[in-house]
């Protein structure tokens, strides 16, 4: 505990005993279970609108969609940029869902912030300190993804960069880390969820889509994340995943997402019973 928190002034639980709550539209992140869902990238009006309608109907709270995509190859699809932001705005108006998108460059923070409700810092940019400082000056909530090679200490120090610039609205997101395992795209580090709660007052959500890279594993890991105490989930959903321009293997189709949401909501209702059973077992 001491080694991790020695440089942290604002992120630690010692500096703020009450949990950070972030109001985004009708949802209070850090209090209500939040589900952010939508395509990896915004690809067309039809794709976004149909996906948005379905995730809303299934019970998602926030619509995600990449406008600027960090891709492994310079020749891959890099997103529709401004056109995607305009489509996200349109979907927000049509379905009443707040929107989140990734910002890749510190020069884009201010103008992208005018379009969206939450700014996402991707895993590849977790330690882009110029970008962290810039979102720290913004008044928008920031979703800070864990770097794929980053320790908890490094991650929390990045949150501290944002907090120390005056932006208290930081949400952490575990999205899997690189290990020797190759069957899954990354390895979901679920123990980080209670560890974050033990050390900080910040909300943490889990992204089982990028963590596993496989549709077949996403629902189980979403349920495991909620059971571990995650404040929410980030799930990639596409109306026709087989045609997706990025992350094809990990985007749920619309019925798969509806099924996941039903299971998550059932689990959420059962959680107080689960917790009291655990307390009962501990005390006896
Ligand atoms: C994403 O959520 O769109 C994304 C690119 O994820 P990550 O930064 O976790 O790889
Ligand atoms: Mn993706």
General description of the model:
Helix 2 runs parallel beside helix 3 (82-95), helix 2 (45-58) runs parallel beside helix 10 (254-283) and helix 5 packs across helix 6. The protein has ten helices and ten strands. With 284 residues, it is an alpha/beta fold. It has a single domain, classed as Alpha-Beta Barrel (TIM Barrel). 40% of the residues lie in helices and 14% in strands. The strands form two sheets. It has an eight-stranded parallel beta barrel, surrounded by six helices. A two-stranded antiparallel ribbon has the order 1-2. The two termini are 29 Å apart. Bound molecules: phosphoenolpyruvate (PEP) and manganese (II) ion (MN).
What's the CATH class label?
Alpha Beta
Task: Tell me the CATH architecture.
Answer: Alpha-Beta Barrel
Which class of secondary structure composition applies to the elements?
alpha/beta
In spatial order, strands of the major sheet run 3-4-5-6-7-8-9-10
List the ligand species: phosphoenolpyruvate, manganese (II) ion
């Amino acid at each position: 505990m001491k080694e991790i928190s020695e440089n942290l002034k604002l992120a630690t639980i010692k500096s703020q005993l009450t949990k950070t709550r972030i109001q985004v539209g009708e949802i209070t992140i850090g209090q209500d279970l939040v589900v952010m869902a939508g395509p990896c990238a915004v690809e067309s009006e039809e794709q976004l609108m149909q996906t948005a309608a379905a995730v809303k109907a299934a019970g998602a709270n926030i619509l995600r969609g990449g406008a600027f995509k960090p891709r492994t190859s310079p020749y891959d699809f890099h997103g529709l940029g401004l056109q995607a932001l305009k489509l996200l705005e349109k979907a927000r108006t049509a379905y009443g869902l707040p929107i989140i998108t990734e910002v890749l460059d510190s020069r884009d923070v201010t103008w992208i912030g005018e379009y969206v409700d939450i700014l996402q810092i991707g895993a590849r940019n977790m330690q882009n300190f110029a970008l962290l400082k810039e979102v720290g000056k913004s008044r928008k909530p920031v979703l800070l993804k864990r770097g794929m090679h980053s320790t908890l200490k490094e991650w929390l120090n990045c949150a501290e960069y944002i907090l120390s610039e005056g932006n208290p609205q930081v949400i952490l997101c575990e999205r899997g880390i690189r290990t020797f395992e190759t069957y899954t795209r990354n390895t979901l580090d679920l123990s980080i969820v209670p560890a974050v709660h033990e050390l900080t007052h910040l909300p943490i959500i889990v992204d089982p889509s990028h963590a596993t890279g496989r549709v077949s594993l996403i629902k189980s890991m979403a349920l495991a994340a909620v059971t571990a105490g995650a404040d929410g989930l980030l799930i990639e959903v596409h109306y026709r995943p087989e045609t997706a321009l990025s992350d094809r293997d990990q985007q749920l189709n619309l019925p798969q997402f509806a099924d996941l949401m039903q299971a998550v909501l059932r689990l959420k209702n059962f959680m107080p019973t689960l917790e009291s059973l655990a307390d009962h077992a501990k005390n006896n």
